[in-house]
């Protein structure tokens, strides 16, 4: 393998890794904030991509407006989903809530499949058909944009949790719901807000992925990768998720190179098993982080 | 002990008798004014593109035939069931169609494995089945009186055509083959490898596989790059092949690329833009979807009238196949006469020779010793954003039918 | 003997008797499509019971239940068609092979729990799918593999009705086994682990052995179900045993009721029959299914088994007793 191939692999691996990190982060956020393991997260990724497709093709907006409007729309959808569908399940057995999110995912997936039957669709981004050439190495600028944008958004989110009062309240609820309630935090609002943010994160992953892979309802399968990334990172922190995602992205692509394309998922899983056997709570996880 | 065994034996025997006593009368599914035809295909799950297309095409054909007066005074009525691309669900669907709805015949509009899951039952129940799309070898091999393959050709035939095209027209020996792991894709890759070796003594430089839903093909493409072939043959569905070809060009692979029939579609060109130029592929029907051929224009307009809010990229190959094969069925029903039975229908189908509804289809021929309707495929090339036919036809005789002629 | 003396004929026994007679007699009035569906129901009952022992009773998450089913299906079919064993030997052997894999998977479970365990089972699922597609000489690969119907006392059970009765007998046996297990010390140990591993440990329970037993049992039931499934359908391919199949069994036990055999039974029947009843919705089938499922979970979060005690309470006007199932909520 030449140096240029190596660079291309790293760039591709990091970009898929940051998508995994975004999806994983959405899962962790919802789980820590509200105790819900949201199995509809993958479908929310697809939903975000389809909404962006709608704004871009049907309404005809430029990429940047599509970007912001989609995040806002999906955040509202996430909030409504929490209020209307998940709130009634507060206090229900854990498994029931998990299966309920599966049902929500199934509904979203089938609604998307039926309402938009194109085999593959995509919307234009300013980076279409561009190619970066650095020292004779071809790099698709989409990959750089995916990685850069996810890192930036995650950075902003970290700042939000540290500095902003609402962000701190979300942190507090995630750490100890009843104590937060006693401190005068309106927990139910924070729940809604948490789901809104995690849905917007899923949509962000969808928007970023689309120019590279196209829109399809099957995009939702990315939830498995996001889940693995989050577990790898310990299922409790933003930073852990990011590192977990990037490691997974790189593992997959190099696993594919050394063991053949069919084995790239398996390579990642086998390594994950080893990591978990050594560190049963992920790389950055701690035993007390276990919530369920 | 012996007594117990005897009673058990008789219980089992009675149970067996009871269930086989639902013997099928010859004119099941045929009344004075209708003929019931059962169809199944995936309209939920990940393979809906196949079932929804085939179903819409078939519906158009039934409408046209019925508006023209039907067949010998009878209207054709289709009952369509979902099989979700699963063999066990397909079997449930077919059993429902045969036993509950009491259809006259089955017109399968599903993929390979769901179809294979139903053929043993159909064979035993002696229900004629006309399989439109599935290319699984088990449909036609071994020969069976009740099973017919319509639109698609045998996977072996794909191998023959690919191999001859590579060697006779392109004159390339250094070939790299990538394929999906799905049944039809993998088998097409394997058959091409087999025939390349058998006919021309050529071994592909490399053969790798990918999974449905893969989004990144860099590992496989690096292997291709290392082997430095004259031609890359990429066998997959449109979503995967679109990404694969784009990444191949990004990685600096400039070689010509041939794709499989499953991705010879306008969406591939939409997805790839300028990267689609020069792509090669086999097309399994007559005039191409966006051609100006009067028959295709007529079909497109009729289809659009029936599906006013159609998604982009439709009608596609499956719409065409769903449509043309219903006409083949209708042709045989016509030949079988007013006094219709399942056996007469099969005899009539076996007399169909070089029949096609219009130039949007390739001709179908069945005989009483093979039920392979179609061996013709057309090589296409992308020029200026359109698939156009390439002037090349194979010279070698196919070996597919030789197995049947004893 | 003493047990016999204390046995009393209750309304529950009456209901069970009626159900059994129905299960035996009703199919005679229907055709092979219904026999096939009824057989699928029974097979799903066997598999769901296994998963419910593991998840509902012992509190361990597994999303690779479809892999155990696949191992049983491919194992049994291979032993019958390639090795030439009788189906009646091959079927339990398929179950045992699946149980061996269950045992192997149980070891990571000794160290991991919750999501971490779920991810390892997901990895196992991926691996089993890959093995099926990459070992075509054993499994038929992506093309799938035909399976045949067994013979009993010289008669091939070719008709769906005769095979239905055989599956019914095996299902009753499975229910009885599961019932005995739940009411044995092992079953009580399952409950203890689910409720609190640390408490179970302080009570000197052999934690690891109990967990491994739970995994083996679940895998064995799934393996038997898989073997019967292969023979019933007559054709198996890897797509049939994917992630969605595992998820479907989790839905079954949640809808039926966690930790309850009756729950597994009603859940399996409901979720096998429902998609068939929704056939007329055509491409909207799954969408409608999702909506019904969500509405059901919001209205009846404790599963179908929680309905009967609630109705009985209403009728008798008592309000004190909690539904027995609610305590299972905490056990993830």
Keywords, separated by commas or semicolons:
heterotrimer; B: 406 residues; alpha/beta; Rossmann fold; 2 domains; 7-stranded mixed sheet; 5-stranded parallel sheet; 12 helices; globular; C: 332 residues; mainly alpha; two-stranded antiparallel ribbon; 4 strands; disordered C terminus
Share of residues in helices of chain B: 40-55%
Q: State the helical fraction of chain C.
A: over 70%
Q: How is the largest sheet of chain C built, in terms of strand order?
A: 1-4
Q: Give the radius of gyration of chain B.
A: 23 Å
SSE-based structural type of chain B: alpha/beta
Strand proportion of chain C, as a percent range, falls in under 5%
Topology, number of strands of chain B: 12
How would you describe the overall organization of this protein?
The complex is a heterotrimer of chains A (292), B (406) and C (332). Chain A has one domain (3-289): ABC transporter involved in vitamin B12 uptake, BtuC, CATH 1.10.3470. Chain A is built from eleven helices and two strands, in the order ααααββααααααα. Chain A has helices at residues 3-34, 41-59, 63-86, 94-115, 141-163, 165-175, 177-182, 187-213, 222-232, 238-259, 264-278; strands spanning 132-134, 137-139. Chain A has a two-stranded antiparallel ribbon. In chain A, a hairpin with a 2-residue loop joins β1 and β2. In chain A, α1 (3-34) runs parallel beside α5 (141-163), α1 (3-34) packs antiparallel against α10 (238-259) and α3 (63-86) crosses α8. The model of chain A is unreliable at 288-292 (pLDDT under 50). With 406 residues, chain B is an alpha/beta fold. Chain B folds into two domains: 34-153 and 293-375, Response regulator (Rossmann fold), CATH 3.40.50; 155-283 and 379-403, 3-Layer(aba) Sandwich (Rossmann fold). Chain B has twelve helices and twelve strands. Chain B has helices at residues 2-20, 48-67, 87-100, 112-125, 155-170, 183-200, 218-227, 238-250, 266-272, 294-306, 317-336, 342-349, and strands at 34-41, 75-82, 105-108, 129-131, 147-149, 175-180, 206-210, 231-235, 257-259, 280-283, 378-383, 386-389. A seven-stranded mixed beta sheet of chain B has the order 7-6-8-9-10-11-12, with helices on both faces. A five-stranded parallel beta sheet of chain B has the order 2-1-3-4-5, with helices on both faces. In chain B, β9, α9 and β10 form a beta-alpha-beta unit. Chain B starts with a helix and ends in a 17-residue tail after the last strand. The relative contact order of chain B is 0.13. Chain C has a domain at 31-245. In chain C, 72% of the residues lie in helices and 2% in strands. Chain C contains 15 helices and four strands. Chain C has helices at 2-6, 11-25, 32-57, 65-83, 87-111, 114-134, 136-139, 160-182, 185-195, 197-202, 207-233, 243-256, 261-277, 285-299, 307-316; strands at 145-146, 151-152, 155-156, 235-236. In chain C, a hairpin with a 2-residue loop joins β2 (151-152) and β3 (155-156).
């Amino acid at each position: 393998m030449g140096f240029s191939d190596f660079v291309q692999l790293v760039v591709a691996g990091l970009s898929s890794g940051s998508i995994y990190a975004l999806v994983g982060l959405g899962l962790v956020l919802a789980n820590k904030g509200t105790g819900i393991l949201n199995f509809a997260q993958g479908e929310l990724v697809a939903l975000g991509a389809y909404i962006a497709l709608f704004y871009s093709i049907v309404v005809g907006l430029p990429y940047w407006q599509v970007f912001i409007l989609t995040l806002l729309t999906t955040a509202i959808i996430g909030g409504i989903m929490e209020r209307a569908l998940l709130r009634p399940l507060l206090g229900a057995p854990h498994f029931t809530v998990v299966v309920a999110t599966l049902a929500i995912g199934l509904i979203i997936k089938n609604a998307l499949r039926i309402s938009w039957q194109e085999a593959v669709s995509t919307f234009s981004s300013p980076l279409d058909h561009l190619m970066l050439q650095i020292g004779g190495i071809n790099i698709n600028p989409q990959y750089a944009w995916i990685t850069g944008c996810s890192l930036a958004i995650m950075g902003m989110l970290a700042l939000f949790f540290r500095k902003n009062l609402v962000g701190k309240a979300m942190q507090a609820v995630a750490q100890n719901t009843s104590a937060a309630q006693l401190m005068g935090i309106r927990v139910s609002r924070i729940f809604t807000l948490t789901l809104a943010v995690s849905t917007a994160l899923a949509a962000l992953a969808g928007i970023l992925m689309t120019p590279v892979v196209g829109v399809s309802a099957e995009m939702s399968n990315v939830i498995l990768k996001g889940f693995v990334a989050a577990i790898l990172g310990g299922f409790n922190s933003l930073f852990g998720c990011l590192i977990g995602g990037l490691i997974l992205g790189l593992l997959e692509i190099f696993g594919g190179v050394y063991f053949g394309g069919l084995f790239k998922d398996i390579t990642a899983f086998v390594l994950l098993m080893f990591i978990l056997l050594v560190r049963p709570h992920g790389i950055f996880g701690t035993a007390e982080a276990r919530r369920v | 002990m012996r007594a117990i065994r005897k009673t058990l034996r008789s219980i089992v025997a009675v149970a067996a008798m009871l269930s086989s006593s639902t013997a099928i009368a010859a004119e099941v599914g045929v009344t004075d004014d209708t003929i019931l035809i059962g169809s199944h295909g995936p309209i939920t799950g990940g393979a809906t593109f196949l079932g929804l297309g085939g179903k819409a095409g078939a519906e158009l054909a039934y409408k046209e035939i019925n508006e023209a007066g039907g067949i010998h005074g009878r209207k054709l009525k289709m009952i369509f069931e979902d099989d979700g691309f699963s063999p066990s669900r397909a079997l449930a669907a077919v059993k429902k169609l045969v036993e509950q709805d009491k259809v006259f015949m089955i017109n399968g509009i599903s993929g390979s494995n769901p179809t294979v899951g139903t053929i043993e039952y159909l064979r035993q129940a002696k229900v004629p089945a006309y399989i439109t799309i599935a290319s699984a070898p088990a449909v036609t091999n071994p020969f069976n009186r009740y099973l017919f393959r319509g639109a698609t050709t045998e996977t072996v035939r794909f191998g023959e055509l690919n191999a001859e095209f590579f060697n006779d027209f392109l004159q390339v020996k250094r070939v790299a083959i990538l394929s999906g792991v799905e049944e039809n894709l993998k088998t097409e890759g394997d058959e091409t490898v087999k025939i390349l070796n058998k006919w021309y003594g050529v071994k592909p430089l490399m053969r790798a596989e990918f999974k449905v839903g893969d989004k990144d093909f860099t590992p496989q493409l690096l292997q291709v790059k290392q082997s430095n072939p004259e031609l890359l043959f990429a066998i997959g569905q449109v979503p995967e092949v679109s990404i694969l070809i784009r990444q191949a060009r990004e990685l600096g692979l400039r070689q010509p690329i041939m794709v499989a029939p499953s991705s010879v579609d306008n969406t591939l060109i939409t997805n790839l833009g300028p990267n689609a130029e020069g792509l090669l592929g086999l097309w399994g029907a007559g005039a191409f979807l966006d051609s100006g051929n009067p028959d295709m224009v007529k079909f497109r307009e009729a289809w659009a009238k029936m599906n006013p809010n159609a998604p982009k990229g439709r009608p596609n190959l499956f719409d065409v196949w769903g449509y043309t094969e219903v006409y083949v069925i209708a042709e045989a029903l016509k030949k079988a006469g007013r006094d219709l039975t399942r056996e007469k229908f099969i005899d009539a189908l076996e007399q169909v020779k070089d029949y096609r509804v219009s130039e949007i289809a390739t001709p179908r021929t069945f005989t009483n010793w093979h039920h392979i309707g179609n061996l013709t495929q057309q090589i296409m090339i992308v020029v200026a954003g359109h698939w156009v036919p390439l002037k090349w036809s194979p010279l070698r005789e196919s070996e597919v039918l030789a197995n049947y002629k004893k | 003997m003493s047990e016999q003396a204390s046995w009393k004929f209750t309304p529950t026994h009456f209901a069970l008797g009626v159900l059994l007679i129905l299960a035996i007699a009703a199919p005679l009035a229907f055709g092979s499509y219904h026999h096939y569906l009824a057989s699928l129901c029974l097979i799903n009952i066997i598999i769901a019971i296994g998963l419910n022992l593991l998840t509902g009773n012992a509190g361990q998450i597994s999303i690779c239940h479809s892999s155990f089913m696949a191992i049983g299906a491919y194992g049994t079919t291979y032993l019958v068609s390639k090795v030439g064993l009788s189906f009646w030997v091959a079927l339990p052997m398929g179950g045992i092979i699946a149980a061996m894999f269950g045992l192997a998977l149980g070891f990571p479970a000794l160290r991991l729990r919750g999501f971490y365990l779920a991810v390892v089972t997901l990895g196992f699922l991926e691996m089993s799918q890959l093995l099926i597609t990459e070992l075509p000489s054993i499994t038929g690969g992506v093309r799938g593999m035909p399976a045949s119907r067994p013979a009993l006392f010289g008669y091939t059970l070719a008709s769906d009705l005769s095979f239905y009765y055989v599956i019914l007998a095996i299902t009753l046996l499975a229910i009885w086994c599961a019932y005995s297990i739940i009411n044995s010390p092992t079953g009580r140990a399952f409950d203890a682990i689910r409720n609190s591993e640390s408490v179970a440990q302080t009570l000197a329970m052999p934690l690891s052995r109990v967990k491994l037993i739970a995994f083996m049992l679940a895998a064995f039931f799934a393996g038997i179900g898989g073997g019967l499934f292969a023979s019933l359908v007559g054709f198996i391919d890897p797509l049939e045993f994917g992630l969605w199949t595992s998820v479907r069994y989790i839905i079954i036990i949640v809808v039926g009721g966690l930790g309850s055999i009756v729950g597994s039974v009603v859940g399996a029947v409901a979720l096998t029959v429902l998609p068939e009843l929704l056939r007329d919705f055509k491409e909207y089938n799954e969408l409608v299914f999702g909506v019904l499922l969500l509405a059901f979970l919001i209205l009846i979060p404790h599963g179908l088994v929680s309905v009967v005690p609630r109705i009985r309470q209403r009728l008798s006007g008592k309000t004190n007793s909690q539904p027995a199932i609610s305590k299972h909520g905490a056990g993830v």
